Each structure stands twice: as C-alpha cells, then as structure tokens.
Amino acid sequence: MDNRLFTGELTKLTACNPESDAKIMEVWHRDTEFFRLAYGRIAQPWSVEHIKKRIENHGGEVNEPVFAIRTLADDKLIGQIGLWIEPSQVEGFVWILIGERDYWGRGFGTDAMRVLLRYAFRELNLHRVVLRVFAFNTRAIRSYEKVGYVHEGRVRNALNRMGQRWDEVWMGITRSDWERQSAAPKNRGENNDEYDNRSAGYIKPVGA
Amino acid sequence: MILQLFEGEKIRFAAFDADKDAEALSKWTHDPEYMRLLSPDPARPLAPFHIKKRFEEMEKEAGRDFYYFVIRAREDDRALGFTHLRWIEWNHGNAHFDMGIGSASDRGKGYGSEALQMLFRYAFEELNLYRLTGHTMEYNTGAQKFLLKHGFQLEVRRREALQREGRYWDGLTYGILADEWANANR
Asked: Taking the domains of chain A in order of start, what are their residue ranges?
C-alpha cells in the first residue's frame, strides 16, 4: 500500500492552523489580483479574525475537507485546497488558491492538485471531480489541463470584471480519465519498496 | 410598463403560507418520481413539520441572495408548485433557479411555462439580473425540452455526475441572458 496520500513532489497537504495560518492568509487577501483570481465575490479586506473563523468553520466535516498547501522544501504555507462533496458522494467540487505570489507559475498548484486528485479517487473514492475557473485565469486553466481535467462547458458571460463580461469555465475529471492517465501498476506486492511516488497513483499525462 | 409581476393568467406567485401549503408540499416529497426529476440529491420524504422548518430557514436568507415563491392556481388558490432564485451574485448579475410543479395531474398544463416567463420578468426586470442559470439531469428529458423551448442554451455537461438506478448520468447546466429573453419577447 502506498500511504503517502498527502505528499507530492513540491508540496504537501496538511491541516490548516487558525492561529499561525490566518496571519499569513490575511496578507494574501489584501492583494486584489489574488482575490479576483480566487473568488467571484465582491473584494473587501478580510481581517485576521475573519480568516481565523473561516478556518475554524471549515475542514472538520467529512463532506468538506480543507487543506493547507505547504512546500516540501521548507514547510512554507503557500495556499489552500479543498473539496465539497455533494450529498450522494459521487462528485466533489474542488477549489484551490495559491496566495504567495512567488509561487505562481512554478508548478506548485499543479502539484497540490495532483495530490488532491489522488486523495479524491484513492481515499474518498469519488467518481468524479469538477471545478469552475474564470476565463481570464489562463494560468490556472493550463495547470488544470496538465493535470488531466477536461473542458466540460462554459457559463456564458457569468462574470462582470474589469468592465467586460467573462465566461466561467467548467472542467471535470472522471475516475476513468484519471486511471487512464496514471501509470499505476495494478498489482503491488510486498517487494515494491523502491516504488517511485511518481508512477504510483500519481497522475502523469500519457506520454510524459 | 408592466405592473403585474405576481399575477399571471392561470397562476400567481405568492408567499409561502404555512397553514395552507405545508400539507401539499409534504405530499409532493413522498413522490419519488417528482423528487428525482427535481434534484440529484437523495430523495427523502418530509413531514409538514419539516417543510415549515425549512421555510423558516429560507426566510432568514430571503431578500439577500435568495428569493422564493409558491406557485398558485388562480382558479382555486391551490399550491401548484414552487420556484426559487438562489445564489444571486449581485456584482455579476447571475442567479440560479429551481422550479417544480408538485402533482402529476398539474403537469403538462402550461403552469410551468407561465411560471418561467413570470420568473424571467422578475429576474430581469425587477432584480435586473444579467443572466439566469438552470440545472437538470440527463434523464430529465422533459426539463431539457422545457428549458430549450424557453430560450435557454446548454452550457455545461458534467459527465457522469450522478448515479441513479445503477448507472451514471450527466449533469446539465443551461443559461439564458437577459438580452436573449428580451429579444425573443420583442
């Protein structure tokens, strides 16, 4: 059994700590470029106390896991990722945010998303995972494509941002999409100590 | 200027009246066919008590990002169904809607069509929304036809998003823009 459920190549998923993490996250939320990439709602500065409450109110429930994304190299908090599982347990709605700008465009979010998908399909045993992303967030869309998400449609003109209308893009990945892409060997014996995390349940695009 | 937002030809939009409506709404939840056409969530019968509680919860949200109506027949004031506008994003002018006609004997009579046209007018000319979003399931071909007939376009197909009767079905999202509705009604 491969039990390294929470570890990727660049990042790891851990619990969120209301005390120490909220202070870091408060700084992210002053950055309105970050805010607009992460949320559709109206931007406003969030206090440390507000963020602390959000952390305390989420992540405890079985149908709504929330993780902190930390770097493997130095345990630095760079983002958050979470799932909302609908009541019949078939589909999970995933969200991700990378608040530390220094870690944008360097594969950290992609890595955390791969870890989350392995968790969704190998621990939660969901049938599919879906996400919504704003059409102007091309960096995120490329990352989701890399991980194996398929474009499933666009909610036309869903957003009014920067004086114009933007679509909301929906992307989904089914268990069979994910299995097809992962090079996971089907029978793993006791002698697989040298087993490489990259080829275990870890998604690699076909041909990569 | 249209002054009647809540009075149609055959139906009206009304507030929920616990004394009159809880019984009827409870009865509808005991019809699994209705419940499955309405929602991908597991069907569950609700007592009038639960219905009342649910409406108390809804009333707390009402008027913020949530509006709801009971659909009544004008002929005898009986409850025919309901419609909701929820998750209203005021900054983007988007909202999601639900609608149901509870009794099988009240379906196919044009009540839903009239209710949807009244809902459009309310959404686009009272709340001034930019677009409206509706969701249904692959197996609900009636709803798909209904949405297309009224000008919605299929926008998203979530493959194998729900499971019913031993197989997976796609989840479907439809949308209509205020302009599209206005042009069709000009």
From this structure: 11-181
pLDDT at B119: 98
Pairs from B64-68 (Cβ < 8 Å, separation ≥ 24) = B64/B88, B65/B89, B65/B90, B65/B95, B67/B122, B67/B127, B68/B16
From chain B, the residues in CB contact with A156 under 8 A are 131, 153, 155, 175, 177
Asked if the ipTM is above 0.90, the reply is yes
pLDDT at A190 over 80: no
Q: Annotate chain A with three-state secondary structure.
A: CCCCCCECCCEEEECCCHHHHHHHHHHHCCCHHHHHHHCCCCCCCCCHHHHHHHHHHCCCCCCCCEEEEEECCCCCEEEEEEEEECCCCCEEEEEEEECCHHHCCCCHHHHHHHHHHHHHHHCCCCCEEEEEEECCCHHHHHHHHHHCCEEEEEEEEEEEECCEEEEEEEEEEEHHHHHHHECCCCCCCCCCCCCCCCCCCCECCCCC
Is residue A197 pLDDT above 80, yes or no? Answer: no
Q: What is the pTM of this model?
A: 0.89
Give contacts of A 135-154 with B, CB under 8 A: 150, 152-154
Q: What length is written for chain B? A: 186
Give the whole-angstrom CA distance, residue A113 versus residue A119: 10
What is the structure's pLDDT at A207?
37
For A89-100, write each residue's pLDDT tens digit. Answer: 999 999 999 999
A128–B153: do the CB atoms touch at under 8 Å?
no
Q: Where are the domains of chain B?
A: 11-184
Examine the pLDDT at A183 and tell me if it is beyond 80.
Answer: no
Helix (H, G, I), strand (E, B) or coil at B59: helix
Q: Is the pLDDT of residue B113 over 70?
A: yes
B56-98 pLDDT, tens digit per residue, is 999 998 988 999 999 999 999 999 999 999 999 999 999 999 9
The one-letter code for the residue type at B128 is N
Which SS3 state, helix, strand or coil, does residue B118 take? Answer: helix
Does A44 touch chain B if contact means CB atoms closer than 8 Å? Answer: no
A133, A157, A179, best to mutate vs chain B, most B CBs in 10 Å? A157
Q: Is the domain A11-181 a CATH 3.40.50.1240 member?
A: no
Q: Fold for domain B11-184? A: Aminopeptidase (3.40.630)
Q: Tokens representing B54?
A: 């649910």
